[in-house]
Amino acid sequence: MTQKKNVTFDDIAKYTNFSKTTISRYFNNPDSLTLKNQEIIAQALVDLDYKENKVARILANGKTEFIGIIIPNLLLHYYSEMLNQILSTYEKFGYKFLVFAGNDQEETERQYIQELLAYKIEGLIILSHTVPSDELAGLPIPIVAIEREDKHICSVNTDNYGGGQQAAGLLHKHNCDVYLHINSPSSPDVPAYGRVQGFLDYCKEHHLNHKLILQEMGSTHESIQMHLTEALEDITENYSGLKKGIFISNDTQANVLLNLLYRKYGRLPEDFLLTGFDNSPISREAVIPISTVGQQINKLAYEAVSLLVEQMNERKKRKPAPLKEPVHKIIPVVLYERETTKS
């Protein structure tokens, strides 16, 4: 059985009666050809059963079809689900991904960025918080942020403020005596701060007894468990006999708090109502399903990749028109009431 011969640019040129230069332009700068000639060459590729040599194309035009991703960690289920959804866009957009987890180490993430640039990535999606957006804006590639400080770069974010209001409203519906929000300290220029502000504004508007519990949780399960154990002890001591509505900043931490309550009481006590934020898989898979303000993670991922691809495609045109200002897209939340807020 003879091995099938690879189809070359010379073969395509002879089949179409075009020059090899024209065939090369079809692959590297198709806008330079008329639509009719593009269609002729495209049909020839089908007729000849052409299989593209990706390595040769990268060497020829420097376009790798790679997108870089930097995430803070894989501890929070939100990040692992976001990564899963970003990777699933390959079938739509055809871009592959190189992924680094920065673990909140600023200099390490700067090294990762340089490593990604060395691999000739065409764009970057960044979820980590350590490198400021004005520095990122100086990189020679398009960048889209998800849920991080984004003043100088394009971004796709959740309606965190509306989510904070919906979380408080869900707990208010059950007539709690005190409303508590557990979160990590953050700057108002971080999109997730909107959860804090939305919760506060709702409680003030409705004259609800409320308190913020701001505590740096760390980036390990052990650290989160330790800090939430301390928070639970304070809540139990200070609000004994009161019906407590607790809004916690993400589903991973909500699940840890739920587990602590089960260890302490063997159940979720009737005077504890709990809602998380994200609608990551852990909220559905917990010992009892957790009520949550759902980020539409699939839409966030799709819109981020779509926005990045638009910018990358623009740069490939003969006369590109770069964005004059960063684009910021907001994706609405969806409230899911489950067992942790049902008396």
Which sheet architecture does the biggest sheet show?
Answer: 6 strands, parallel
Distance between the termini: 72 Å
The quaternary state of the protein chains shown equals single chain
What's the tally of helices?
14
Mean model confidence by pLDDT: 90
Number of strands: 12
Class derived from helix and strand content: alpha/beta
Low-confidence stretches: none
Concise overview:
The chain has 343 residues and is α/β, with parallel strands linked by helices. It contains 14 helices and twelve strands. The termini are far apart.
Please give the structural blueprint:
Layout: H1 9-16, H2 20-28, H3 35-47, H4 54-61, E1 66-71, H5 77-87, H6 90-93, E2 96-101, H7 106-118, E3 123-126, H8 133-136, E4 143-146, E5 154-158, H9 160-173, E6 178-183, H10 193-205, E7 210-214, H11 221-238, E8 244-248, H12 251-265, E9 272-278, H13 281-285, E10 291-294, H14 297-315, E11 328-331, E12 334-336
Parallel strand pairs: 1-2, 1-3, 3-4, 4-5, 5-11, 6-7, 6-8, 8-9, 9-10
Antiparallel strand pairs: 10-12
Helix pairs in contact: 1-2, 5-14, 9-10, 11-12
Overview of this protein structure:
Helix content is 45%, strand content 17%. The chain has 343 residues and is α/β, with parallel strands linked by helices. A six-stranded parallel β-sheet has the order 2-1-3-4-5-11, sandwiched between helices. A six-stranded mixed β-sheet has the order 7-6-8-9-10-12, sandwiched between helices. Strand 3, helix 8 (133-136) and strand 4 form a beta-alpha-beta unit. Helix 9 packs across helix 10 and helix 11 packs across helix 12. The protein starts with 8 loop residues before the first helix and ends in a 7-residue tail after the last strand.
